[in-house]
């Protein structure tokens, strides 16, 4: 499964980068395949391990912020591994074709 999620601290002002970094640090230290972009962090693994990472990432932000917003999207597809890479490679392969 792949989960894309965003944790946003509320009530701490506009500069939230250090809070978001706390959440991303939890994901990276988990050892699960992951990617972070400007809007979301994606993490791949089994249901229980991925949801545990999300829970701990939220807790890391919650420890320093009075309120936390969580947006989460999940791709639950048993038997698929390395989806973080293979999905992007498929799109890139189509874009590389003439007219792509």
From TrEMBL:
Annotated Thiamine-binding protein domain residues: 3-92
Q: Membrane-crossing residues?
A: none
Q: Which InterPro entries match?
A: MTH1187/YkoF-like (IPR029756), Thiamine_BP (IPR002767), UPF0045_domain (IPR051614)
**Coiled-coil regions, chain positions:** none
One Pfam family of this chain:
Thiamine_BP
Xref: PANTHER family:
UPF0045 PROTEIN ECM15 (PTHR33777:SF1)
Q: According to its UniProt record, which protein family does this protein belong to?
A: Belongs to the UPF0045 family.
Under what name is this protein listed?
A: MTH1187 family thiamine-binding protein
